[in-house]
Amino acid sequence: MYRERTSRVPGARVWSSTPAPGPTAGSGGLVLPDGCLDLLWRCEGGEGRLLVAGPDTRAHRADGDGRVRWTGLRFAPGHAPALLGVPAHELRDARVPLEDLWSADRVRRLTSAVALADRPGTALEEIARAAPPPDALTARAARLLADDRRVADVAEDLGVGLRWLHRRSLAAFGYSPQVLARVLRLQRAVRALRAGRSPAEVAAGAGFSDQAPLAREVRAFTGRTPRAFQPSAAKRSTDAPSGSRTTA
């Protein structure tokens, strides 16, 4: 069972996923690229571990191990690198133990604190509480790209060069600005498809010339067709959030 709530950490969401009983237990959902990084708590048999999920460039099948419980703090694009002390592109398409990024002593203390907490999500929020805010230009770039602005126009609006924007985007988001724009557009398209809009409507609303480019883009990121994300898709497993590695 998957649950999600707004976090006290600005721009973040807290989510949890527990094994589902019955025939769907052990099945894995599809994790779509979303430009986010997640701080993860993996708990199995009373043993827990802290990990970090980097930004994905392709959808992947989640780990459907029915014995594992997950809790995550999902940061908005560009918000996590300042906390982690690592450029986002170094974590792209990766799931790494937190001790690979921080000192072993620090991670042991944090692991103990999360393990003893009544609510692991709240404990993850405590870890992130001291995170500095994202760079103002970076945050504005993400908002403009989410509005489907051209990369050259975003750079001009920010008063920076294209090379600066490219370097800053890799460090903050893990992607070039062009790829981040595509990922954010994919998210909008999939939400619209799940809401029941036809591929033709979604293509027009997302700025594609017709359905064919939409289909190519969805397939490039997810390996699926647009219709696979519509409510009528039979027996479709619920997609998991970024970094969850389990069925939502």
Nutshell version of this structure?
Helices cover 38% and strands 16% of the residues. The chain has 248 residues and is an alpha+beta fold. It folds into two domains: 2-128, no CATH class; 136-229, Homeodomain-like (Arc Repressor Mutant, subunit A, Orthogonal Bundle), CATH 1.10.10.
Report the span from N to C terminus: 6 Å
Q: How many domains is the backbone divided into?
A: 2
Number of helices: 9
Strand/helix succession: EEEEEEEHEHHHHHHHH
Mean of the pLDDT scores? 89
- Computed over alpha carbons, the radius of gyration is 18 Å
Read across the widest sheet, the strand sequence of neighbours is 1-2-7-4-5-8
Sheet with most strands:
6 strands, antiparallel
Q: Which class of secondary structure composition applies to the elements? A: alpha+beta
What proportion strand? 15-25%
Helicity level: 25-40%
Instruction: Please tally the β strands and state the result.
Output: 8
Unreliable stretches, pLDDT < 50, 5 or more residues?
A: 23-27, 234-238, 244-248
Q: So what's the overall shape?
A: globular
GO molecular function: DNA-binding transcription factor activity; sequence-specific DNA binding
Region (Disordered): 1-28, 220-248
Protein name: Helix-turn-helix-domain containing protein AraC type
Domain HTH araC/xylS-type: 135-232
